[in-house]
Amino acid sequence: MDREGLGGLALAVFLAATAPAAAKDWGLVVGINDYRHLVAAEETVPGQLSDLQGAVNDAMVIAESLRAARVDLPDDRVLLDASATLDAFLGAFESIKTQATAGDTIIVTFAGHGGQEHEVSAPVDETDGLDETIMFHDFDPANAREGRLNDDQLRTLLEGAAAFQVLFVMDSCHSAGLERKVARGTGLRRTGGVWDIPLDPIPGEAPSGQGDSGLPPLPNVTQILATATEDRLVQETVFEGKRHGALSWFFAKAVAGEADQNGDGALTRLEMAAYIGDRVFTHMEQNQQPRFLPRGDPSVMLQFREPASPVAEVIDPKAILVQLIGEPPPSLDLATCGCRLVPSGGAVTIERSGAGWTVYNGVGDKVTEFTGDVGPHLARAKFLLDLNAAKVTHLPPIEIVPQQSAARQPLDALVGFDFRPPTPDLVFITLFNVASDGRLQYGLYPPGVREDVPAPDGLSLRFTVVPPTGEDQLVVAWCARPPLALHALLAQHNDRLVPPMADVVAAASDTTCQFGRIGLFTEGG
Fold first, then answer.
1. Contacts of 330 (CB under 8 A, 6+ apart)
2. Which residues sit opposite 471 in a β-bridge?
3. Cα 490–417–524 angle (5° rounding)?
4. What is the per-residue pLDDT across 272-327, written as a single tens digit (0 to 9) for each?
5. C-alpha radius of gyration, the chain, whole number
6. Residues 452 and 378 in one domain
7. What is the pLDDT of residue 113?
8. What CATH number should be reported for the domain holding residue 506?
9. What's the whole-number mean pLDDT along residues 414-427?
10. Element at 135 (helix H, strand E)
11. Which helix (H) or strand (E) holds 358?
12. Which of 57, 93, 306, 349 is the least crowded, having the fewest Cβ atoms under 10 Å away?
């Protein structure tokens, strides 16, 4: 395989140097649900460290995608649960090094618990005094040095692989986290807590490095972090009825070819960063923001067997997954709602609350409360799911930059967003809002005077928070020409229930458009 580099995932360590012709790719995949010294996930109580439910699923979908991309990944380098001890991991990594040739790429992915530990010996290199760790099957809370690999040790491991490109993917906590408080979590968090470490090392402990802060980056390493800062958490979510980490899922999809925006058969770091960053941010309702170090550039990370065909927009036909807590609303008709009830992990959670019901989104944020018909809330959730699926894969995602934090904003607060076109030829912007009660609010942009004014340099808009509060979703479309039929459809549904996303896509089909969305979370009377 001719290739120059490769790409990765959640605290992922990639390497981005140019590889020689016919370089080979080697894989090592880790997924740990079952921890030797932890309680089962279904037996846990709040605040207790427990097993996970989605990490093995992550490992399996990643392994499938890597193998399809012709990465050398035998079964004995897919370490699951009890086979995923620290010694087994280190042994597998060293085995690859003995077989690989200089310039080859080593791809390592880890899905499991991540934690932090107080630094107890020099070099004390972290400003917060905490080293980040990944925890293997044999991690022992009674001896927190056992079965873990901290960031200093990881640097030592990578320094020993300087002859190779290395992609290290870590879908675990403490690669970053949550800024807005989640009202009701829908999945287990991959945090292993913060531990005090004894001064004396345990026999056979992996050696510490020279610290990971303030040192120059290793030239053969690229990092893709699950979230933006080290103190943030990663929450499991649901795809196709199974628990996963969002970054693992979209990394697997990217490697399978969905991130190849121009269909040239080569996956660049820029394409990977754009695809994964947008998909994770959107799916996790702006609760998880991946970070890419270094920032995306045109370096080729993966060369496919043949150029991938551009992927057209697709509306997801699956039924919406609904979780109920308490009795169902009387207006919920399973025969006609287009939904499927699940015990956990629904795109929508409906909970009995006093005389009415409370609606939560897929990651547990409170959307709104209602006392009447549940239908508009299901239609809203289905619209947003279909909007995610309607993004045109072979086009870059829309960049939307909030001018405020992701925390809930009070009434009368001034909020703003910067909207940037995904490509130079998509310069006509349409913006509307889907309110927490499912109503479409049109007229944000264009303002109604002119529909044919381009915004090639992007658009910056500011709004004042007004009722109803809850979770709004600002929907944006950047198009090659003014989408007049789309504007007519939106005007027809203004202040009414949002139409099916399929109707929105059809109305914009006379031109090329890319869709995106971002949440605005508000609170108040």
1. none
2. 521
3. 85
4. 888 888 888 888 887 787 777 666 667 777 776 554 444 443 444 568 989 999 99
5. 23
6. no
7. 87
8. 2.60.40.1930
9. 94
10. strand 130-135
11. strand 356-360
12. 306
Q: What is the pLDDT of residue 31?
A: 96
Q: Which residues, other chains included, contact 258 with Cβ-Cβ below 8 Å and sequence gap of 6+?
A: 275, 311, 393
Q: How many Å apart are CA 340 and CA 332, to the nearest integer?
A: 11
Mean of the per-residue pLDDT values of the chain: 80
Does the pLDDT of residue 178 top 70, yes or no? no
Looking at per-residue pLDDT, the higher value among 308 and 503 belongs to 503
- pLDDT at residue 173 is higher than 70: no
Alpha-carbon span 378 to 338, nearest angstrom: 9
Confidence of residue 127 (pLDDT cuts 50, 70, 90): very low
Is the N-terminal amide bond of 294 cis, ω within 30° of 0?
A: yes
CA distances to 24, 123, 124, 150, 411 from 120, rounded to whole Å, are 40, 9, 8, 13, 47
Print the domain residue range for 373. Answer: 320-386
b/e per residue 182-202 (b: at least 16 CB within 10 A): bbeebbbbbbbbebebeeeee
Q: Each residue of 72-103: pLDDT tens digit?
A: 999 999 999 999 999 999 999 999 999 999 98
In the chain, the number of structural domains is 3
Contact, 70 vs 60, CB < 8 A? no
Nearest 10 degrees: CA dihedral of 496, 515, 486, 504? Answer: -60
Q: Which of 339, 340, 335, 387 is nearest to 519 (CA)?
A: 387
Residue 359 has pLDDT above 90, yes or no: yes
Same domain? For 287 and 360 the reply is no
Residue 169: both structure tokens together? 């993917």
Residue 49 token pair: 């460290």
357 and 409 co-located in one domain? no
Residue type, 396: P
CB 277 within 8 A of CB 292: yes
How far is C-alpha 523 from the chain's CA centre? 25
Look at residues 88, 227, 108 and name the one whose alpha carbon lies nearest to residue 165: 108
Contact call for residues 134 and 110 (beta carbons, < 8 A): yes
